[in-house]
Amino acid sequence: MKHISGKDINLGFALVVLSSITLVAGAFRWPLFIFSAILLVSYIVLDRKKLRCPNCGGFENLERLMYAKKHVFYCRHCGERINVL
Ligand SMILES: [Zn+2]
After folding, report:
1. Phi-psi bin for 59: left (phi > 0), alpha (psi -120 to 50), beta?
2. Among 1, 22, 55, 73, fewest CB within 10 Å belongs to which?
3. What's the CA gap between 53 and 83, in Å, rounded?
4. Residue 13 C-alpha to ligand 1 middle, in angstroms?
5. How far does residue 29's CA lie from ligand 1's centre (Å)?
């Protein structure tokens, strides 16, 4: 059955959080901006490859995917159920 991996959602969330932290820290130590950019790009790649509706490829934001981990969740683009495993 088609599904989105819960691990990928956690990873995406971690990347966003780390990217935000390094961005703020970059105000004090500028090389951290580079890490922030790398983390952000990693997240974008992960998002494009893994964090999409498996049926139609539609974009879902991270908050909705976190919600989908614990609730029954339907894609707002195609209406198919998205399973998070
Ligand atoms: Zn869909």
Report:
1. beta
2. 1
3. 9
4. 21
5. 41
